[in-house]
Design a protein that fits this description.
Strand content: 15-25%
Shape: globular
Helix content: 25-40%
Order of helices and strands: EEEHEHEHEHEHEEEHHHEH
Number of strands: 11
Largest sheet: 7 strands, mixed
Strand order of the largest sheet: 5-4-1-6-10-7-11
Length: 240
């Protein structure tokens, strides 16, 4: 299999505009993310997919590979445009604002497809256990429930499952938005119209479920630093 990583990168972020061009040590956030992904040595190629000439030029001048795309509603749609003419089998989506993603979770996602002899899995992603009540109830944390084989049943910003039977302990998992796609499933996804559940929850991977595709979830204990606010940037600078 040929495996590539694509980093969707939008310049205008609603909560923190131009966050990917902020300095993190001696490099910008997007360049730090790009170089960290390259250094895992897991991928045949690594690209940044962006609609911003500023970000495109930043990557290219630092020796990286970038693809210009149009404007899109979701990162998956942006990646689908970027990879349609690239020869590959598996596409890993790494968020541009997650500069500290570790090697092991990425390797686990790749292994899902190596073990999928029947090629029934369209998408693999990560989940992490939540224990704090405030984190479980936070609608910014997308929760996921899976079947006994680790396939996603549903994603929601609400608390799922609902804990009605208090004498029985239940676990809650947060979905981490790092995706591994089969290329053909990703291209198919980009052609499918949004359905009511995805529109209501604003969770793009629900589109796969609404069209009957299989999503495999891998549990991880990795906690990154997603840079969504200026405060997150300061935390990341301390880690650097």
């Amino acid at each position: 299999m040929k495996i590539i990583a694509v980093i969707p990168a939008r310049y205008e972020a609603s909560r923190f505009p131009a966050k990917l061009m902020q300095m993190l040590g001696d490099k910008t956030v997007i360049t730090t993310t790009y170089k960290n992904v390259v250094e895992t040595e897991l991928f045949d190629e690594v690209f940044v997919a962006t609609d911003s000439e500023i970000i495109f030029d930043e990557i290219v001048k630092n020796g990286g590979k970038a693809v210009m795309t149009g404007q899109h509603e979701t990162g998956s749609d942006r990646i689908a445009e970027a990879v349609q003419n690239i020869d590959c089998d598996i596409v890993i989506n790494v968020q541009g604002d997650e500069p500290f993603l570790k090697l092991e979770p990425l390797r686990q996602l790749i292994d899902v497809f190596k073990d999928d002899d029947n090629q029934e899995i369209s998408l693999a992603s990560l989940k992490i256990k939540l224990t704090e009540k405030a984190e479980i109830e936070n609608p910014n944390n997308v929760k996921v429930i899976t079947d006994n084989n680790g396939f996603a049943l549903y994603f929601s910003r609400s608390v799922i499952p609902f804990h009605r039977e208090v004498s029985y302990d239940v676990s809650y998992f947060k979905h981490i938005g790092v995706y591994a796609f089969r290329k053909h499933a990703l291209l198919q996804f980009s052609k499918l119209e949004m359905k009511p559940l995805e529109i209501s929850e604003k969770i793009e991977c629900i589109r796969y479920l609404e069209y009957g595709m299989k999503i495999k979830l891998i549990e991880t204990n990795f906690i990154g630093v997603g840079i969504d606010t200026p405060e997150d940037l300061e935390k990341a600078r301390k880690l650097i």
